[in-house]
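Open question from group meeting: does this chain pack into something compact, or does most of it stay loose? Before anyone orders reagents, we agreed to write out a predicted structure and look at it together. Recording both the input and the output here so the notebook holds the full record.
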Amino acid sequence: MLEPNPVSLENVLDLPTCDIHAIAPEDLRELLDIVLPLDKAQVMAEFFAMMGDPSRLRILSVLSKQELCVHDIAAIVGMSESAVSHQLRILRTMRLVSYRKSKRKVYYQLLDHHVLEIYQAVSEHLDEKV
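Structure tokens returned:
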């Protein structure tokens, strides 16, 4: 894990400045107020690393349309039910999917609108023409 590096306005003002982009102290103060805290950056990095698995992304892609049982997810994404169950456990741990039981079946869905928005935003970004 990274060591925290507390940054203050005084520390930043003591650093050599860029000759091209002179930043006023009040602008530096504003940037220091909005910079992502190191502990949150670490958690977000772990989240994005977990999202870096193609199988999990494929599962999220089908769950973005509707809730499904493990059997149906496995058939759609071309994985074994055991492998899908394993990936769903990870997605549940990261609070990306939830489930409901109906008799002997378990149905999975995206946990909330944030998960759908993350999925859609990345998908749309990648579809954009450069």
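Observations to bring back to the group:
The domain at 54-127 is CATH 1.10.10.10 (Arc Repressor Mutant, subunit A).
The chain has seven helices and three strands.
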